[in-house]
Amino acid sequence: xxxxxxxxxxxxxxxxxxxxxLAADPEIEVVGTAADPYLAREKIKRLNPDVITLDVEMPxxxxxxxxxxxxxxxxxxxxxxxxxxxRGADVTLQALALGAVDFVSKPKLGVARGLEEYATEIAAKVxxxxxxxVQALVRPAQRLGPAAPAPAAMAARFRTTDRLIAxxxxxxxxxxxxxxxxxxxxxxxxxVLTQHIPGGFSRAFVERLDRHSPMLVREASDGELVLPGxxxxxxxxxxxxxxxxxxxxxxxxxxxxxxxxxxxxxDVLFRSVAQSAGPNAVGAILTGMGxxxxxxxxxxxxxxxxTLVQDEATSVVWGMPxxxxxxxxxxEILPLERIPARLLELAGSHAHAGA
Length: 355
Hints:
GO terms for molecular function: phosphorelay response regulator activity; protein-glutamate methylesterase activity; protein-glutamine glutaminase activity. This is Protein-glutamate methylesterase/protein-glutamine glutaminase. It is a single chain. Helices cover 39% and strands 21% of the residues. The chain is an alpha/beta fold. The protein has two domains: 128 residues, Response regulator (Rossmann fold); 204 residues, Rossmann fold (3-Layer(aba) Sandwich), CATH 3.40.50. The strands form three sheets. The chain has a seven-stranded parallel beta sheet, with helices on both faces. It has a five-stranded parallel beta sheet with strand order 2-1-3-4-5, sandwiched between helices. It starts with a strand and ends with a helix.
């Protein structure tokens, strides 16, 4: 059965282009379009789509306000369509925090090859969104379940300078990474991360993470020393590798070819960590579409590093974690809320074992 999609965008041209690109895929049926959230609300009731594509910035009603109401009252998979601007990046990250599954940047109209590549990307993300686990938005004060350990409590029992945590993620990962980093103490071991994200969004993403984490989150620069208490992400459209420099690690940034169709790629990071840190590292794959990172995580495990993945129940898309499990790359499968403490525990116990 085809995936039923509703396209919501205030631009008639964009609505037409998106509709034609999506309808060209035999697994997708565009059941309708809407020029603003008010019309979208009525069409959702009438057409019952499986997935919505939603413009980030709309003049008549804030797309974020509409998304928040939708995720609270009738949660469903949403793919945001955003402009590659500083404001577009910030609003898109807010949308992901509210429960949107994924996002694409607006197509470059009139460029045939660009549209062809774009068609493949948006169709893949709509299909991934259709399989996503979407939960109702709950205000923080109302969240149920045991509270995670306070960063200060974890900091009291964890001090190390020579361990490395490597994390990879894709769809759903912007919020999963935030959830992990906000539970890390300020003196946690260095964390190196790769998240599939467009180049123009990377700086806004790093700044958002830095606001939420006791650690110092930064965009890595080539040759930079890897330090405890810091989390490093690659600059936009670049791979991040870790190299050994005597007894220390440094960041290596390059614009090499995409790996698994991605730049940055998780496999690139994990393979470098396996080679440079071996058993001194801990690896984790969080929610994401595809299989990037699975082979790299297996290489980390074979090099002696403990490895874990996010479980299916708490993943937005269990593509990357599931691929790692299938490959035999994961020592443990854990819900997202248990991952921060377990990463620290593994790094800490590993530190004592290797000391």
